[in-house]
Amino acid sequence: MSITTVSVKNRFMTLKAIAAITLVVAVVTGCQDSNRPATASTNAAPPAGTNFASIPGEFASPAATTQAGAEEAPIGACVKVTGKPWEAGMRAADCGGPDATHRIIQRVTTPDECVSDIDRRFYQNTAAGEWTACLDIYWAFTDCLSVTDDGTHRVSCGDQSAPTRVRATKVVLDTSTADMCPEGGYDHPERKFTICTETQK
Question: Is 1 exposed, middle or buried (0-12, 13-18, 19+ CB in 10 A)?
Answer without folding.
Answer: exposed
